[in-house]
């Protein structure tokens, strides 16, 4: 039995290469083929796709999920869930977390890949417990990074703690593409020897090591690996399944239909050429050895450039990249994944432009105080002392301090001229301001199309 493949084409791949702008209408033509390709699961939802759908694509992310589920009947559908952050950038109360997982499962998600940016497992309890109660498959994901505190022993201990939460799979989530082949082999082998639980490896091709990393991970016994389909592969996305397939030993290769994959690849090439070519940049596709030093994921790099451009300081990018590792060390080596990548990046920009810690970002103060969870290592004592003069330190699970919000969100949606559905209530809970604008516009557009269809039908009937 070969390694199983989790295909990321419709989520992480286009999030990494096309700024998450791939539209649902362009996914539909390949859904039936993806279902026939032989993948274990398709990662199609979560991460930034929810936010981008309502803000930029003007699509309902819940409708995207339902549309995909209608066409994909045999293959599992999977999502990336940021623990207590869900698909947002802050912690939400437990009632919102529970309802979100329930509705996502009902609308089509079979597998929840759940992680916390700090690897603070207290922030996974609510979502893991709910998903398991529904009968969903849960992947407990460890955010992989490199630092003095993130050792092999650290990850093994973390995986053991995740296993005690009864997750179904342990995922090594390497968001920056910095997991090297030797470490991948050692870590997977250690996890497989210690735990009686499947192991999944997720990486990006940012540094150019991903294919070699997967080969060694599979040799060590990895049960699952994540790949994408070219041209939505490589660069800051996952490596392409076609290349990975032929890089593996014959007895380790997945049972994937490469002829179907080729058809999907041809379609993607055509639609990207017609509609998305301006988003697919050479920089995103080229290997970047610098990521092995600064560990900055592709999305974070784009954010930094945008911040500096707004301040007319794009020429200082190199200084900011050099400052990011120093800020990480000061803050106790947090992994650079949403929302911590944005927090560290913003502080690095402030340090370069205004002087080191002349201004401490509000989010950094909340992080140091424990509002995001426990930092992996010790925070610089001087910074910690400065912050705690102004902010109260949190010594409990951060979500324990949050009041329930679901009923309040329901009341707000009742006041809007939109249907009172679980999906609309949750969209409002997660992104109130964006949802207020989006939902009103979305349902007005639906009503307009319905009227146009009704008129057309009347005309055809009268003829």
Topology at a glance:
Elements: E1 4-7, H1 9-17, H2 24-36, E2 41-46, H3 49-57, H4 61-71, E3 76-81, H5 94-107, E4 111-115, H6 125-134, E5 137-143, H7 152-164, E6 169-173, H8 181-194, E7 199-202, H9 210-219, E8 224-227, H10 241-247, H11 258-276, H12 282-285, H13 291-294, H14 298-310, H15 317-330, H16 340-354, H17 362-369, H18 381-388, H19 406-414, H20 422-430, H21 432-462
Parallel strand pairs: 1-2, 1-8, 2-3, 3-4, 4-5, 5-6, 6-7, 7-8
Short description:
With 463 residues, the protein is an alpha/beta fold. Helix content is 53%, strand content 9%. The model has no long low-confidence stretch (mean pLDDT 94).
Provide an overview of this structure:
The structure is a single chain. By secondary structure, this protein is of the alpha/beta class. The protein contains 21 helices and 8 strands. It has helices at about 10-15, 25-35, 50-55, 60-70, 95-105, 125-135, 150-165, 180-195, 210-220, 240-245, 260-275, 280-285, 290-295, 300-310, 315-330, 340-355, 360-370, 380-390, 405-415, 420-430, 430-460; strands at about 5, 40-45, 75-80, 110-115, 135-145, 170-175, 200, 225. Strands 1-2-3-4-5-6-7-8 form an 8-stranded parallel β-barrel, surrounded by 6 helices. Strand 3 (about 75-80), helix 5 (about 95-105) and strand 4 (about 110-115) form a beta-alpha-beta unit. Helix 5 crosses helix 20 and helix 8 (about 180-195) packs parallel to helix 9 (about 210-220). The radius of gyration is 22 Å and the shape is globular. The protein starts with a strand and ends with a helix.
């Amino acid at each position: 039995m070969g390694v199983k493949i989790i295909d990321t084409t419709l989520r992480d791949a286009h999030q990494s290469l096309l700024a998450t702008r791939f539209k649902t209408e362009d996914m539909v033509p390949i859904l039936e083929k993806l279902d026939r390709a032989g993948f274990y699961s398709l990662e199609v939802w979560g991460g930034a796709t929810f936010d981008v759908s309502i803000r930029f694509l003007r699509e309902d992310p819940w409708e995207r999920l339902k549309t995909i589920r209608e066409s994909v009947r045999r293959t599992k559908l999977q999502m990336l869930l940021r623990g207590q952050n869900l698909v947002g950038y802050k912690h939400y109360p437990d009632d919102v977390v529970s309802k979100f997982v329930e509705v996502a499962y009902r609308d089509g998600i079979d597998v929840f890949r759940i992680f916390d940016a700090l690897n603070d497992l207290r922030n996974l309890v609510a979502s893991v417990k709910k998903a398991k109660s529904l009968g969903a498959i849960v992947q407990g994901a460890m955010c992989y990074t490199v630092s003095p505190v993130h050792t092999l022993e650290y990850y093994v201990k973390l995986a053991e703690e995740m296993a005690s939460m009864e997750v179904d799979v342990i995922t090594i989530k390497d968001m920056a593409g910095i997991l090297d082949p030797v470490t991948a082999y050692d870590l997977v082998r250690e996890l497989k020897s210690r735990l009686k639980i499947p192991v999944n490896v997720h990486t990006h091709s940012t540094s150019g090591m991903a294919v070699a990393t997967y080969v060694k991970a599979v040799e060590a016994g990895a049960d699952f690996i994540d790949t994408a389909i070219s041209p939505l592969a490589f660069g800051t996305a996952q490596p392409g399944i076609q290349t990975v397939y032929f890089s593996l030993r014959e007895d380790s290769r997945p049972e994937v239909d490469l002829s179907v994959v080729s058809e999907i690849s041809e379609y993607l090439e055509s639609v990207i050429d017609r509609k998305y070519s301006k988003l697919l940049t050479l920089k995103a596709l080229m290997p970047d050895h610098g990521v092995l030093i600064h560990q900055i994921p592709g999305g974070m790099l784009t954010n930094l450039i945008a911040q500096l451009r707004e301040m007319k300081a794009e020429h200082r990018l190199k200084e900011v990249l050099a400052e990011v590792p120093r800020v990480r060390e000061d803050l106790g080596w947090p992994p650079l994944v949403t929302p911590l990548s944005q927090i560290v990046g913003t502080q690095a920009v402030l340090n370069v432009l205004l002087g080191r810690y002349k201004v401490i970002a509000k989010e950094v103060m909340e992080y140091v105080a424990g509002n995001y969870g426990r930092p992996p290592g010790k925070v610089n004592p001087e910074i910690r002392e400065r912050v705690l003069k102004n902010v109260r330190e949190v010594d409990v699970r951060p979500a324990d301090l949050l009041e329930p919000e679901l009923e309040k969100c329901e009341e707000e949606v009742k006041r809007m001229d939109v249907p009172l559905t679980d999906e609309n209530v949750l969209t409002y809970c997660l992104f109130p301001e964006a949802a207020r604008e989006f939902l009103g516009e979305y349902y007005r557009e639906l009503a307009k199309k319905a009227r146009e269809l009704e008129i057309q039908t009347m005309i055809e009937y009268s003829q």
